[in-house]
Each structure stands twice: as C-alpha cells, then as structure tokens.
TrEMBL record:
Regions crossing the membrane: 52-76, 96-118, 130-149, 187-206
Protein name per UniProt: CDP-alcohol phosphatidyltransferase family protein
Molecular function in Gene Ontology: phosphotransferase activity, for other substituted phosphate groups
Record keyword GTP-binding present: no
UniProtKB keywords: Membrane, Transferase, Transmembrane, Transmembrane helix
Superkingdom of source: Bacteria
Family according to the record: Belongs to the CDP-alcohol phosphatidyltransferase class-I family.
Coiled-coil spans in chain: none
Record-linked Pfam families: CDP-OH_P_transf
Amino acid sequence: MTKPCPPNPEAVPEPSTWDARLARRLVTPLVGTPVTPNHLTTLRLAIGLAGAYYLSLGQFWMCTLGALLIALSNLVDHTDGELARISGQSSKIGHFYDLAADALVTVLLFLGIGFYVAVHHPSMIVPAQWLGAIAGVAVALIFFLRMRVESMVGKSGTKQASMAGFETEDVLYLLPVVTILNGMTPFLVAASIGAPLFAVYVAIDYQRVNRQMKQRAQASHADKSNDFQAVR
C-alpha cells in the first residue's frame, strides 16, 4: 500500500552515503512526475543486464564497457529508493522488485566475469565459469537471507556497514579500473572465496536472529499465559 506523500521532500533525512546523496539530487526533480520508483528499478535492471552481457563476451573493450555499465547500474540502484522516500511511493512490491533486480544483476555480473576470464585463462585448475557461478550463488544466498532477516526485524537488521560515506557494495565502482588494469582474474578468485565466506557469516547471523525471534515469541506466550492464570 502506498504511503502518503510527504509535504516537503527536503524534510526527509539526508542519506549517509555519497552515492545515495547524489541519487537524491538526481531524482528530486522527478517528484510529482509520472516517473515511479519501479521505472527506475527497471532502468537499473536493464543497465545491469547489458553490463553483465558485455562482460561475458571476452573482449577487452566490451568488458570495459560492461564494467562501466555495472558501475552506472550500481548508482542507479539508489535512485528508486530515494525517489520512493521523498515522494512517499514506498511499497512492499516495489521493495521486493528492487531486491530481486539487485540479486539478478549481481549473480549475472559474476557469471559474466567468469566467462570473460575463461576466454583468457582456459586452463585454470577450476574453470572460471565455475568460480563465477560459486560467487553468484553465494551472492544470491546472501540476498535471500538478508531479505528473510529484514522480514523479521526490519531494514535496520540488514543495513550495511559504512565508512566515510562508502558501503561494501561500492567496490563495484572500481570494476572499470579493475578491467583496465587486467585484474579480472584475481577479482574473480577473490570473489569466489570471499562471497561464500560472507554467505556463511550471513547464514550464522540469520540463525541468531531466528533464534532470538523464537525466544521472544516463547517469552510473549509465557507472559500471556501467566496473565491469564492471574485473571482466573
């Protein structure tokens, strides 16, 4: 259900990260126009899919173009949320669409890098496509578990750590530099190791939150039972 529009977009608190602040300025003129957050999510998805495709072609300049599109897609990813916040158009469906687009683009990004590396290093011990798939599946698991945690405790439970206006996902802005410096192979290897490890961490955190929620539910049930007995 759509929330009521705030009387003044400037009354909405300023984002903490630099790319979200830039996105806020880009979408502020769109308030009151037919453009909706879902339109921007679709734009982000289209740019990300194109970026992943160009990455997979195995050609240096096509890969560089793909990396630039992925970086642009990462910036556009902030525009839908910012427009939703300042225009009062937030919705559960829109939020789910945004998460699904994020997951799809990120998974295909790593698969695309895997195909690119496979063209240039076909004799790796572990095929590069497999490394891309490992990183992609791990990222998909991370998105799923974070969505589950968010459904239990709200967005505060999945908020990324930030420092000096940067978040972990902002490493994607460096992807064009990695491409130009021919660093895709070590980037892929690092992702195929780091993403599964982070997925394990998120899985442990999910189990912790799930256990806490069960304990709270049991405590609430016990309190209600005691109150009922006291009334009797």
